[in-house]
Amino acid sequence: MRLVIIGAGFAGMYAALSAARLRDIQGVSPEQLEIALVSPEPTLVVRPRLYESKPETLTAPLLGVLKAIDVVYVQGSAETIDTQSRVVGIVAAEGVKKSLSYDRLVVATGSRLARPDIPGLAEHGFSVDQLDDAIALDRHLHGLADRPALNGRDTVVVAGGGFTGIEAATELPTRLRAIFGKGVKPRVIIVDRNSAIAPAMGERPRPVIEDSLHKRGVETRLGVGVASLDKSGVTLTSGEHIETETVIWAAGIRAAPLTAQVPAERDNSGRLLVDRDLRVSSVPGVFATGDAARAACDDDGNFALMSCQHATRMGAFAGHNAAAELLGVPTKRYHQEKYVTCLDLGEADAVFTRGWEREVTMVGDTAKKTKQEINTVWIYPPKAERAAALASADPERVGDVSGFF
């Protein structure tokens, strides 16, 4: 029997860990149940941190962990999914193509930034969505130091006033001063079509966010969008033109395109609709998880968000359940009733909320220390030690935030 997992992000990593854990508990050998993880590199990109400087350091190796738990690593990019014949088509190094059959499949392909067809965006826009994007932005910012302080060199426009846009914008003043020198006063502007900043976070944390933006000197243009980009800067739908050499697109996210090859219903973000076991009900043998899945996380009408917090726990349940079906043991109903957020606001500042109502429970330095612990400890892979790695993947404990309630 073979269980194939596509993707080495947070969901894919925990799917592999959890499936291996159940296999170990059931006393089944790796020869009886092969668990294979497909990814271009055996590396976890710490995507929630890509708004920071030195993004090339924000990865964690996975090969040692996978070997420790007897998960086969298959290097390559999954290009096709044939759910009729249960085969994944993979493009390996130097364009070599190969096929991998499966008895159960976990689609953990993550998400991608939605880039609309705005004139000039492809040519002149940057992002912090993927590792290569963040590295390109960091190199661009450092390259600006060699240019004269003209034509908006010290101005950065961030398109998108959601979680990613705010974290990128509030980090930028410190990053730019480190590059240009302490005497430079960088200008950072957030542009968002919504009438309020951080619309998805609700009203409770908004005063804290607005106060922090003011302290950082971050300007906002709300109720307007980006109309076009060119070498001279960005033009807004209001007609305002802002001179800048740096526009960071941080508006919108969609499930990775490979999910479209699974013949099943999807939501407006391209996520596959799954049942409470994270099974794609209309397609036998296929599970979806993380940003690739739209899953109910409680009985109150709340659905998992496209976030690391939800992806880790969803991955653990998906891997467990896919293995459980093959091993003939009961599955576990995915649930994630408790939800917290910790938004970085630059320097010694952050805001921590709990519950779907976003009740503010920590701000300032206390929240910042929590954010740093989340970003540098909690979301990293377990040690490459078999017992510890398997113990870390109990679906009922992964992503448990009960300590905050």
TrEMBL record:
Keyword Oxidoreductase belongs to the record: yes
Keywords assigned: FAD, Flavoprotein, NAD, Oxidoreductase
Ranges for domain FAD/NAD(P)-binding: 2-315
Coiled coil spans: none
Any one GO MF annotation of this record: NADH dehydrogenase activity
Pfam families: Pyr_redox_2
Family the UniProt entry places it in: Belongs to the NADH dehydrogenase family.
Name of the featured protein: NAD(P)/FAD-dependent oxidoreductase
Annotated source species: Bradyrhizobium ottawaense
